[in-house]
Amino acid sequence: MTDSQLIEAALAGDEGAFAKLVGPHRRLLHAHCYRMLGSLQDVEDAVQETLLRAWRNLSSFQGRSSLRTWLYTIATNVCLRAIERRPSRVLPIDYGPPADPHEPIQAPLFESVWMDPYPDEQLGLHDSLGGPEARYEQRESIELAFIAALQLLPPRQRARNDVDSIVGMLTDTATLAMPPIPNWYRGREAIERVLREVVFIDPRSWRMLPTAANGQLALGAYELDSSGVYAPRGVTVLTLEGELLSEIVHFRTPSMVERFGLPLRA
């Protein structure tokens, strides 16, 4: 069925037709909301509200713009409302540990306090039909540094920059391109060397399972607990420039491993 036929069926109350209509746009809507909000939990809520509003207001879609642009407009407004409602959040450069007001200000905590890593599978990593340039730009659009920079902008400017640079740039099929796995990352011995020499933890008490996040390689982190089980401790994202490791960001949320399809025990 064409989009027009699906719209007609959806207007008649066919929920299945509506699901087929919006299905191809769901992944990119999810990524768009992530760029706006930074939090995966907020993103899930925003996407659900976007689709609910689209379903209720489908009769207002006049076809003067593409369906994708119409959906992005709804998603942007949903995200802006979500930003207005939620309490002020801080980025790593603004956040420091508790301190005595009479003592010198301590150094900030250089870690993400509220942002979440983004699972590559959310964008259909292996389903892409887009060209190399579109895939590269899509990967750049969800890199941690880019997401953190977006959060420093006022909400409406954040939305404008995101829509202008992303919506007009991508095709419906353009999705994330996974960077090649560098030679030093291959194999268990290489991962243990990274843990020991770069992350400075003992690989005998930790296990790391490879995954992918924000267009980069990532590791699900598990620590040996008192019961002799390797329990999840979070996700570590490795930012690569070629085969050079330029940044390590660890997200200390044990439940995060489930979002990446990793086991609860390693």
Structural features, described:
With 266 residues, this protein is of the alpha+beta class. The chain folds into 2 domains: 3-88 and 114-167, RNA polymerase sigma factor, region 2, helix turn helix motif (Rna Polymerase Sigma Factor, Chain: A, Orthogonal Bundle), CATH 1.10.1740.10; 183-259, no CATH class. It is built from 10 helices and 4 strands. It has helices at 3-11, 15-22, 26-37, 40-56, 67-85, 132-140, 144-151, 155-167, 188-197, 256-259, and strands at residues 206-213, 216-224, 230-241, 244-251. Helix 1 packs antiparallel against helix 2 (15-22), helix 3 (26-37) crosses helix 4 (40-56) and helix 4 (40-56) packs across helix 5. The protein is elongated and about 60 Å long. The chain starts with a helix and ends in a 7-residue tail after the last helix.
In short:
This protein is of the alpha+beta class.
The CATH superfamily of the largest domain is known as RNA polymerase sigma factor, region 2, helix turn helix motif
Name of the CATH first level of the largest domain? Mainly Alpha
Spatial shape: elongated
CATH architecture of the largest domain: Orthogonal Bundle
Order of strands side by side in the largest beta sheet? 1-2-3-4
Number of strands: 4
For the largest beta-sheet, the strand count, sense and barrel status come to: 4 strands, antiparallel
**Overall domain count:** 2
CATH third-tier fold name of the largest domain = Rna Polymerase Sigma Factor, Chain: A
Give me the number of helical elements: 10
Average pLDDT, all residues? 76
What gap, in angstroms, lies between the N and C termini? 46 Å
If you compute it from the alpha carbons, what radius of gyration comes out, rounded to the nearest whole angstrom? 21 Å
